[in-house]
């Protein structure tokens, strides 16, 4: 496909207020497989953006426009270093990631928006998982007139701090605990707020086909993560993709994959 055939998006990012101080940011013109959820959480002393999308268009100005006080310090927390979760990380001055993913965040591989450049086994895994077929490009619109998809340049950034299981993110008036949730990615993290039952689960669990086949995935580790999540008294789960869901659905998704892996003799 010729990029000049694509329409120009009116807005690249879309913001959806979820509750006071919590806003979902999405990239609807990115193919569903690579269109990740970002969450802006506004605290009393500091704001937090969980993940930074594909990096097709500048994210920081959009996020600052959403913030009640754009002069407040802002931290970007990268849940894991897959292409759809840290594309704009370099735009933020404060950058957190699990220590295992720090090298991947600093030195990402050369990514392309050309779907033809994806490894064949990855494309096959997407199809097996049940995702819609890929588009020729990973976007169906341009962020601005004259945008050249070949100019897509995935930068990455060094972490300004690293996280491990049990660390606490404190924004002032809002705290959450870091959960290490390996399986989808070795150093993937989620955030757990015990007093409200709120879970930011990244790609450990979301309400769509989970990915578990291919390089970097670890089914036994993933199973341990799902068993752990299954026991968590979460009331609302905000995943790395797809809409939020409650505890019953979380247990249903965990059981679906644990049963599948057991039936296949993988766990
Ligand atoms: Zn993802």
Distinctive features:
Metallo-B-lactamas; Metallo-beta-lactamase, Chain A; NDM-1-like; 5-stranded mixed sheet; 5 helices; alpha/beta; EC 3.1.2.6; hydrolase; hydroxyacylglutathione hydrolase activity; binds zinc ion; 267 residues
Which helices and strands appear, and what pairs or packs with what?
Layout: E1 14-19, E2 22-26, E3 38-42, E4 47-50, H1 60-66, E5 74-78, E6 94-98, H2 102-106, H3 120-129, E7 161-163, E8 168-170, E9 175-180, E10 189-193, E11 198-202, H4 219-230, E12 236-239, H5 247-263
Parallel strand pairs: 4-5, 5-6, 6-7, 11-12
Antiparallel strand pairs: 1-2, 2-3, 3-4, 8-9, 9-10, 10-11
Helix pairs in contact: 4-5
Bound molecules: zinc ion (ZN).
Zinc ion is lined by residues 36, 82, 84-85, 203, 240-241.
Question: How would you characterize this protein structure?
Answer:
- This is Hydroxyacylglutathione hydrolase.
- Residues 35-241 form the Metallo-beta-lactamase domain.
- With 267 residues, this protein is of the alpha/beta class.
- The protein has a single domain, classed as 4-Layer Sandwich (Metallo-beta-lactamase, Chain A), CATH 3.60.15.10.
- The protein has helices spanning 60-66, 102-106, 120-129, 219-230, 247-263; strands spanning 14-19, 22-26, 38-42, 47-50, 74-78, 94-98, 161-163, 168-170, 175-180, 189-193, 198-202, 236-239.
- It has a 7-stranded mixed sheet, with no helix packed on it. The chain has a 5-stranded mixed sheet with strand order 8-9-10-11-12, with no helix packed on it.
- A hairpin with a 2-residue loop joins strand 1 and strand 2 (22-26).
- Helix 4 (219-230) packs antiparallel against helix 5 (247-263).
- The longest helix is centred in the last third of the chain and has 17 residues, at 247-263.
- It is globular.
């Amino acid at each position: 496909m010729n990029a000049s055939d694509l329409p120009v998006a009116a807005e690249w990012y879309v913001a959806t207020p979820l509750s006071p101080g919590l806003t979902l940011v999405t990239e609807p013109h990115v193919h569903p497989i690579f269109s990740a959820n970002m969450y802006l959480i506004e605290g009393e002393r500091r704001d937090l953006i969980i993940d930074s999308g594909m990096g097709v268009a500048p994210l920081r100005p959009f996020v600052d426009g959403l913030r009640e006080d754009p002069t407040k310090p802002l931290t970007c927390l990268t849940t894991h270093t897959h292409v759809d979760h840290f594309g704009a990380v370099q735009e933020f001055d404060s950058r957190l990631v699990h220590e295992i993913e720090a090298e991947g965040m600093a030195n990402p591989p050369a990514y392309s928006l050309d779907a033809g450049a994806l490894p064949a086994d990855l494309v096959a895994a997407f199809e097996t998982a049940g995702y819609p077929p890929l588009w020729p490009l990973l976007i169906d619109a341009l962020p601005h007139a004259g945008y050249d998809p070949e100019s897509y340049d995935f930068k990455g950034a060094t972490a300004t701090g690293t996280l491990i299981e049990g660390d606490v993110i404190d924004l002032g008036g809002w705290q959450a605990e870091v959960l290490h949730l390996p399986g989808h990615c070795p150093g993937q993290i989620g955030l757990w707020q015990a007093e409200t039952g709120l879970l930011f689960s990244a790609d450990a669990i979301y309400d769509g086909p989970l990915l578990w086949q291919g390089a970097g995935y670890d089914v036994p580790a993933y199973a341990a993560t799902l068993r752990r999540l299954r026991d968590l008294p979460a009331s609302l789960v905000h995943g790395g993709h797809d809409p939020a869901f409650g505890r019953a659905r979380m247990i249903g998704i965990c059981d679906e994959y644990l049963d599948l892996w057991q039936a296949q003799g993988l766990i």
